[in-house]
Every structure is written in C-alpha cells, then in structure tokens.
Give the backbone structure.
Amino acid sequence: MNRYAKNIILLVLLIISHFALLSQKKYHNQIPDLPAVPALVNDFAHMLNTWEVDTLEAKLLAFEKESSNEIAIVTVNNLGGMDISQFSVELGRKWEIGKKNKYNGVLILASKEERQIFIAPASGLQGVLPDMVCNKIVREDIVPNFKQGKFFEGFYQASEKIIGYTRGEFTTDASDRPDDLSSETITVIIILILIFIGIFVLAYLTKNDGTTYVSRRGYRNDRDDYWGGGFGGGSFGGGSSSSSGGFGGFGGGGGGFNGGGSGGSW
C-alpha cells in the first residue's frame, strides 16, 4: 500500500473525528437549560393549560416526596431533526433528573410538531421500567389520548402507570452506582475506536497485497409507529415554558440516562 493511500485513510479518519466532535457540541448546546424555577412539569410547547400543569406537578411532587423517584414531563415545539430518544437522554443528563447515586428519574418527553412521545427511565429504574413496559404505556395510555387531543389525560394516565410500576423502588438509600458516561466521554471513546480501527486497517493492508473489502449490513424496525431507545442527534424546539411556580423541582445530582426507554407517534 503506497503512502498516498495511507494519507487518504488518515484524512478520512480525521474528518470523521472532527465532525463527530462538532456534532456532539451542537447537540449539547441545543439542549435547554433547567428553568430558573425548577419544576417537574415544563410545558414549553403549551400543550396544557395552567390547571393541568399544576395538577400534574402536584401529583408528581407528592410521589417524589413519598418514594424519592422523580418523574419529569417536558413538551417542546419541535426537535429540529434530532432523534427524540437521544434528545431525552441528553435532557435527562443535563437536568440531572433523579436523586444523586440513585439514578431514579423518568422523563416523559413530547414533541408537538413531530407528534412524537418518548419515555426515558434512568438506569436505576430500568429494572421496573424496561423498554417493553415503556412501549406498553406509550401505546395504551399516551397515543390513544394524544390522537384525540387529550394531552392532559395522556400524561396523567402515563404518570399513574409509571408510579404503579416504580412504587416502592428506592424507599431507602440505594448503594452507590458508578457515574453514567457523559456525552463527551462517549464521543471520545468512539473517536478512539475509529482511530484504532484505522491503524489496524493500515497495518493489515500494508502486510497484504490481496484485495480487501468490507461488507455492511443494517436494519430498521418500522413495525407500527413505536420504537425503542437509541442514539441520534438534534436541536431544541424552543419557546417559553408554562411550569408550576408553587411546587418543588429536581433534587439535582441525578442522571444515569443511557438510552433506555421507548416512544411512538400520534
């Protein structure tokens, strides 16, 4: 393999690494900051009226005081092309939903323009809220109500189901868990893996005169309008929020969002 070909491969790897870093920075900057007055219900897309926001806030706050689990409801105008599962992961991490060392937060995210919904549990609750349970809640409680414009009913019933599944979890202090990987750490790991693969390919091609090829396969699950967790990219829909001012907010120090959960569209 000549020097020219090697330089081309190295250049491609550098370009991939560069765009990966830029993309990750873009996504991080587009995730909204936690409101100055933290609340468990933040209706940026104005899908709920004031009474509905306050009712949901009171319900979720009462459950938080009882169990320490934090369920957050957030609506946005649009995702700007971002995958809703990755948006949920990044938002859950940035807002640190859940309690420190318990990773017991749950995010219910709705995007108004894309008409998409996603339930993302943190790692500490994924045992009682696996993807199949989140998918069941989305299909049976959220989507049917949302299709009729009954957003409050959808959020309320979903909250009821989540509370039912998580009740009793973390009633006492849980043992410490290792910190979840940050987005930046994941990006660095991916870049290092790409560099390692590039070096391996260079070394292999240098020692072999034969023809080398790579086959690529993938799949997409398009069954119905529901999907599981994963990673994507994106931006925040913007808009002012309607949140309850008389209640509590996040305890801080949570996190543990690693891509679990499920969503759908209405």
